[in-house]
Amino acid sequence: YAIHSLAWDLNSQGKRTEAEALSREEVAIWRRLFGNEDPRVAWALGDLTVFLRDQGKDSEAETTVREALEIRRKQLAGGRLGLASELHSLAWVLSHQGKQAEAQELIGEELAMRRKLQGKEHPAVATTLYHLAIFLNAQGKYSEAETAIRQSLAIRKATFGELHREVEVMLGFLARVLQDQRKLAEAETVW
Questions:
Q1: Nearest of 18, 8, 20 to residue 53 by alpha carbon
Q2: Cα–Cα distance, 142 to 178 (Å, whole number)
Q3: Which end of the chain is more exposed for a tag (fewer CB within 10 A), N or C?
Q4: pLDDT in tens, 93-111
């Protein structure tokens, strides 16, 4: 785990290439010790995905996170939060590649899993709804995006209260979605 911590420290310092190298070493160690299908390999591949994505290596990040996702699916049939996290990572990688529809599908799968495992009102569900709204809005699916962001906003308000920073972020995005639909008067009232 020391390699893991050091890689994240290096990444946070902007030393992405060094973080990637350490992360690759960690993946190799877990593979050597436990085999290619071990959850620890998936976990390390998830970290490597972030380091690759942070360097703009989207194609390699996609391959890496798909491998992690496959390991998680095999190990955790029925759904676990680790699998939801891998779905989320792959969705963002695909989004960076302009594959919004596929990203949206994965976020939808993540949302269903989080609702099942964490409950419909959990803050992580609100975050996933927010991400779903981003993908929907990027595809011009404004009405669906509005529904998702309003659901996210309701959870955030119930969890954090009306004046929390997270609620402000949701309100800002709701205003944007409304503007994209040319609902300008309603967008003005959001703030």
A1: 20
A2: 8
A3: N
A4: 888 888 888 888 999 999 9
